[in-house]
Automatic annotation (TrEMBL):
Region (Disordered): 159-180
Protein name per Swiss-Prot or TrEMBL: Uncharacterized protein
Highest taxon in the source lineage: Bacteria
Length: 249
């Protein structure tokens, strides 16, 4: 059986084994949790086979589906999950793109990391994108913080029982500009995660029980989406995942 080791290098260069995992994604997730904690001079990395664990949209979809089920069982709020996701993405900020394993690890790490508190300044900060499309980690951060600011607005003005049919974020006077549309459909981690990957890369199958196919113009409902290979993903791809989590149905 292949194994992946999370390794630590201290501030004088000594290397130590932290933990071993039989899943590359789990090992990468643990390294992200450790790297994103209290600032330190230590370095964490994963040693083991380099081959990707996830190489298709179907595999990524199933991983997100499982994460959503675990988040539901743990009674996480969407705000808490997104705050943790924001924190654990930090160690990847200097990368121009990430592999599917890194994407899965980042979202997995968010279920393992205590979320930081909400910063009220996010509600009034200008979080608009620098360009027309997300370009880097800073833009990905603006997308997440925009969603967190919206959720805090909703905490003061709840969307009501018909929220799943779509509702506009309140964005009261004094709110800063935000990088995301105001329309929301999904308010819990499980629904957010399923819609995030189904809307951005596909990979769903009606047999999974999470998605009911809708008929097209000629009345045919496809039982599944196409399975395709996925490789490196940009921060724009990650931002699209987040926006689909908010808006896709």
């Amino acid at each position: 059986m292949d194994m992946w080791d999370v390794m630590r290098q201290d501030d004088v260069g000594n290397e130590y084994l932290v933990a071993s995992f039989d899943s590359r994604v789990s090992a990468l997730a643990r390294a992200l949790v450790l790297e994103s904690g209290v600032p330190h001079k230590q370095h964490y990395w994963v040693a083991g086979p380099k081959g990707p664990a996830l190489s298709t949209n179907r595999e990524l979809y199933l991983h997100f589906l499982q994460l959503g089920q675990e988040a539901r069982s743990a009674s996480w709020s969407l705000s808490a999950f997104l705050r943790a996701l924001w924190r654990v993405s930090g160690p990847l900020r200097d990368r121009s793109g990430v592999e599917p394993d890194d994407v899965a690890a980042m979202f997995t790490a968010a279920t393992l990391c205590p979320p930081p508190p909400f910063d009220p300044a996010w509600r009034t900060r200008d979080l608009s994108l620098a360009g027309d499309e997300p370009a880097d980690h800073a833009d990905w951060e603006r997308v997440l913080l925009s969603q967190l600011a919206d959720l805090e607005d909703f905490a003061e003005r709840p969307p009501g029982p018909r929220a799943r049919f779509g509702v506009e974020a309140p964005r009261p006077p004094g709110s800063g500009r935000r990088a995301t549309p105001a329309r929301w459909y999904n308010f819990d981690p499980a629904t957010y995660l399923e819609c995030a990957v189904a809307g951005s890369v596909g990979g769903w199958d009606a047999a999974d029980g999470a998605r009911i196919p809708l008929p097209d113009a000629v009345g045919t409902a496809a039982p599944r989406s196409y399975v395709r290979d996925i490789t490196d993903m940009s921060w724009a791809d990650l931002a699209r995942i987040a926006v689909c989590g908010q808006m896709y149905q």
